[in-house]
Specification:
By secondary structure, the chain is α/β, with parallel strands linked by helices. It has 11 helices and 9 strands.
C-alpha cells in the first residue's frame, strides 16, 4: 500500500482496509498534509477493497483542525489549508464502498465531521464529541452544519452547534448519531467484525445499495424509487446475482467475486 506520513493504511481482514489518522502527539489533529493524504487514499482506492474503517491512533480519534498550524496564517494560507480539508471531505463522501468510523477518544470539530461523513459510527464508551467552532469565531466547515442535523434532527443539532457543547458517546447513541458504543478495548475488533460481515456480501450489491441510499434520500419518493430501481437493474446480469440465488438453493454460503 502507499506510504503516508499522517495516516497509516493496513488490512486487518480480506477486503477490509483500516485507515488510521496518525498524528497522536497532536491528538490526530487535521493538518494540510493529512487532508491531502486522505484525498489521495480515497481517490486511488484499490478495486479489491470492500469496506474502509477510519480510526485514530492512540487516545483520540481526531481533535479537529490543527490550531497550532493555523497560528499566524494569512487569510490566503487559511483558505489553501481549508481547500485541502474540503477535498478530503468530498473524496470521503464519494467513496463507493461503505466507510465506518471507529471513534476512540475525542472527535471534535473536523474530527467529528470526518466521522459524520462516514456511513455509520461505532464509538468507544469513552469517546467525546463536539462541533465547537462557534467558540472559536467560526462555524463547522467540513459538513457539520449539514450532516449533524440529518443525523440527529435540526433542533438538537442547532443546540449543540450554537453552544459548541461536548457530548458523550452514550448521548450520541441516544441521539441516533452513533450506531453502537463499545468498551475501548474491543472497539476496533467489533468494527472489524462488522466490516467483515459487510465484505462477505456481494460487493457490487453493496455499492449499488450505497448509491441508492444517498442518491434517493433527498428526492421525492417517486423519484427516489426510480433511483433505487436503476441501481437494482444494474445487478441483474451479474455473476454474483446468480451465485447468490444458486447458493441459497444449494444451502451453502455464497462466494462473491464482485463480477
Amino acid at each position: 500500500m502507499s506510504s503516508f506520513s499522517t495516516i497509516a493504511i493496513s488490512s486487518p481482514a480480506p477486503h477490509v482496509t483500516l485507515l488510521t489518522l496518525s498524528r497522536p502527539s497532536s491528538a490526530n489533529a487535521l493538518s494540510r498534509q493529512m487532508g491531502e493524504e486522505m484525498t489521495q487514499f480515497f481517490k486511488t482506492l484499490a478495486k479489491d477493497i470492500r469496506v474502509v474503517i477510519i480510526t485514530g491512533e492512540g487516545k483520540h480519534f481526531c481533535a479537529g483542525a490543527d490550531l497550532k498550524e493555523r497560528k499566524g496564517m494569512t487569510n490566503e494560507q487559511w483558505h489553501d489549508q481549508h481547500h485541502a480539508f474540503e477535498a478530503a471531505l468530498h473524496a470521503l463522501l464519494a467513496c463507493p464502498v461503505p466507510v465506518i468510523a471507529a471513534v476512540n477518544g475525542a472527535a471534535f470539530g473536523g474530527g467529528l465531521e470526518i466521522a459524520l461523513a462516514c456511513d455509520f459510527i461505532y464509538a468507544s464508551t469513552s469517546a467525546r464529541f463536539a462541533l465547537s467552532e462557534t467558540t472559536l469565531g467560526i462555524i463547522p466547515g467540513m459538513g457539520g452544519t449539514q450532516h449533524l442535523p440529518r443525523a440527529i434532527g435540526t433542533r438538537r443539532a442547532s443546540e449543540l452547534i450554537f453552544l459548541g457543547q461536548v457530548f458523550s458517546a452514550q448521548e450520541a447513541e441516544g441521539f441516533g448519531m452513533v450506531n453502537k458504543t463499545c468498551e475501548p478495548e474491543v472497539l476496533i475488533n467489533d468494527v472489524i467484525a462488522i466490516a467483515c460481515r459487510i465484505a462477505a456480501n456481494a460487493p457490487m450489491a453493496i455499492r449499488a445499495a450505497k448509491k441508492a441510499i444517498y442518491g434517493g434520500i433527498h428526492l421525492p419518493i417517486k423519484d427516489a424509487l426510480s433511483c433505487e430501481l436503476t441501481q437494482y437493474q444494474t445487478l441483474l446480469d451479474t455473476t454474483d446475482r446468480h451465485e447468490g440465488i444458486n447458493a441459497f438453493n444449494e444451502k451453502r454460503k455464497p462466494y462473491f467475486t464482485g463480477s
